[in-house]
């Protein structure tokens, strides 16, 4: 690439338990681990080879440094990506684009639909739009916790720009991929968060992330009373205070909250099933014993009949006696 530092494209899931095609940009390892930063505007594109209007575009502004060397996002579910009828993977080939601009101002990058699909460099896996560096002082990118201009478009923002990444705990950082995925499918959440204070945004996203992580990882068999109370408390606070449209998530949360009576009924059902199985086994044993007893009965009855034939019964209680004749 012709920018001041090399970059590379990575294509793999951010986490093993996330079933999505992930595409992100990473600064090459040639730069030192500290003492540098790059304000970068870029656009990542997954081309739909059957219909350009269905190509998936992610635009963002990021400040890369030694501790923050890559950015990416979920693009599409792997199931849809691997389906050649969807147009993203055709003849075992997918087309990815990376448009990069290192500058002091946000560039106007043309919409993906305006790209000429018949361009001679279409076969290239990576494309770059380079803007010249402007003279004057360098403007800092939007930092976590900052306010946003009314002219700022939600498509220019990512979930990371609403969070104080440096102060997040490890268990909170693992929520970011889930929040990225959520905002990819629900961009209106970004628009609503732009109007909120930094502290409120941080609380909202972390609460929402905990709920998403709970629903994503918790199995019904592992849920207990404390889990249900925790998810109930988080959801009520979020639904009553955030003013976000969470109607798409509510059925899943209510389903989780309804797990308690289900578990209790499931336990009762299992107990009754075990009892029925035990009684069934016992009845089978009794039937086997009855069958054996019937066979023994027939043998004994037959033997009795044979012995009784010609047998003259006598009073065994009477004395044998004798006569004097």
Automatic annotation (TrEMBL):
Domain (MATH): residue spans on this chain: 1-100
Biased composition (Low complexity): 135-153
Keyword Coiled coil tagged: yes
Top-level taxonomic group: Eukaryota
Entry's transmembrane regions: none
Region (Disordered): 114-153
Cross-referenced Pfam families: MATH_2 (PF22486)
Alphabetic keyword roster: Coiled coil
Name assigned to this protein: MATH domain-containing protein
Source species: Pisum sativum
């Amino acid at each position: 690439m012709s920018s001041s530092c090399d970059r590379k494209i990575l294509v793999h899931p951010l986490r093993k338990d996330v079933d999505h095609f992930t595409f992100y940009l990473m600064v090459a390892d040639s730069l030192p681990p500290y003492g540098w930063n790059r304000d970068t505007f870029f656009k990542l594109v997954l081309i739909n080879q059957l219909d350009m209007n269905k190509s998936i575009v992610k635009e963002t502004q990021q400040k890369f440094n030694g501790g923050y060397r890559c950015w990416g996002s979920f693009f599409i579910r792997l199931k849809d990506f691997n389906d050649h009828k969807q147009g993203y993977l055709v003849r075992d080939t997918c087309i990815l684009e990376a448009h990069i601009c290192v500058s002091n101002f946000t560039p106007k990058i043309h919409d993906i639909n305006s790209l000429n699909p018949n361009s001679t460099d279409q076969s290239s896996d990576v494309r770059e739009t380079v803007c010249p560096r402007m003279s004057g002082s360098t403007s800092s990118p939007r930092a976590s916790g900052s306010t946003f201009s009314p002219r700022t478009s939600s498509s220019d923002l990512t979930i990371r720009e609403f969070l104080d990444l440096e102060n997040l705990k490890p268990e909170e950082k693992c929520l970011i991929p889930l929040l990225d995925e959520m905002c990819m499918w629900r961009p209106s959440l970004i628009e609503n968060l732009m109007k909120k204070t930094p502290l409120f945004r941080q609380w909202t996203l972390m609460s929402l992330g905990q709920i998403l992580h709970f629903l994503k990882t918790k199995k019904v068999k592992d849920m207990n009373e404390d889990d249900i109370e925790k998810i109930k408390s988080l959801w009520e606070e979020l639904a009553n205070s955030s003013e976000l449209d969470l109607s798409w998530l509510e059925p899943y949360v209510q389903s989780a909250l309804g797990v308690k009576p289900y578990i209790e009924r499931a336990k009762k059902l299992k107990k009754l099933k075990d009892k029925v199985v035990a009684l069934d086994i016992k009845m089978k044993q009794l039937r086997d014993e009855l069958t054996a007893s019937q066979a023994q009965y027939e043998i004994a009855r037959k033997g009795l009949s044979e012995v009784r034939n010609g047998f003259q019964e006598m009073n065994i209680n009477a004395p044998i006696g004798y006569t004097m004749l």
